[in-house]
Amino acid sequence: QVHLVESGGGLVQAGGSLRLSCAASGRLFSNYAMGWFRQAPGKERECVAAISWMGGITFHADSVKGRFTISRDNAKNTVYLQMNSLKSEDTAVYYCAAHQSIGVNGYYIRQYDYEFWGQGTQVTVSS
Question: Taking 70 as the threshold, does the pLDDT of residue 27 lie above it?
């Protein structure tokens, strides 16, 4: 299986930026579609961004479109979530997830599509 470790979360002021990283190990990273999910207290886990295994096809949720950008560097076995113009409603635990997608260059936006998950990193946006 793939082991995923998120980093880069923290406390940031509204309007600021953070870049989350998800480092993968254990399997061939380039064969996995990746996603970023977030879960705020009392809310369902939602997909905020997803990227195909080749990196050319991406999805961004309407709530973050234009502010967040998902990318990946397969040579570094890492997927990123660049978060700009952060708002208080972006406060949540952010998780990265992986889905084996050999032969299919697509993205996935349902949590049920993913079989591997990181433990999450807290993002808190003040004011």
Answer: no
